[in-house]
Amino acid sequence: MVGQNPLKKLLLHLALLIVVVLSIFPFYWLTVMATRTTSEIYRFPPELTFGGELIKNIRNVISHIDFFGSFFNTLFVAVTSTLLVLFFCSLAGFAFAKFEFPGKKILFTLMLLTMMIPHQLSLIPSFMIMQKLGWVGSFKALIVPGMASAFGIFWMRQYATGAVHDELLSAGRIDGCGLFRLYWNVALPILRPALAFLGIFSFIGSWNDYMWPLVILTDPAKYTLQVTLSQLNGIYNTDYAMVMAGTLMATLPLIVIFLMASRQFISDIAAGAIKD
Length: 276
What we know:
Pfam families: BPD_transp_1. Residues 71-261 form the ABC transmembrane type-1 domain. It is found in: Cell membrane. Its main location: membrane. By secondary structure, the protein is mainly alpha-helical. The protein has a domain at 65-232: MetI-like (MetI-like fold). The chain contains 14 helices and no strands. The longest helix has 36 residues, at 240-275.
């Protein structure tokens, strides 16, 4: 960007600043509402500064629902399903990218076509399958169907096509590596930036999933966080300050996970750029 017009540079930074503010403001507003009372939330003009009701609202959340039980349920499901997604999607994506086998193009095309099917259309068939397997009401019904995704395989295949060079695989074969060792010892370390992104994407998707846990879970002790938080909405009136506090408590782990994984994602990309 040497010699760039200073005015264009200033406008670019100003545009980026506006985008950052617009991206952060919803979380800031959520935090503000979580520190206020419901009557203060309805006030006009709205208060844009933090209040002093956060601890009280958090106590109300904990007293109304089993927050920590559902939190650990969600954490278990999200971590387990994310690890399975990373393994199976990276393995399948690597195979599609670097190996030739009969029906490869047809299988890949059919897999991509499944991405065009709305998730809502699969709810009833998926529930019937879970019922036949006897998994209704269990965590297996949340984890097993989501242990691989068409998007994850497509993403890993696209990344592996350009990042994993054929020369490295040839050298691995000369050293006596089989197919799985080529994946585990040669390809997997190179795929770390793509795995970091897919891990963030899958974890957030599993953490925020509401519809499928609502359909498949029957025991309140096994409810995930999103299903449990929906119980904060009253029939005749709703304490929105308490709802916002619960939402804030459920959002904070996602921010921590995102910051940790994105740092790994950026550092791996930077390391790869230096090596290249």
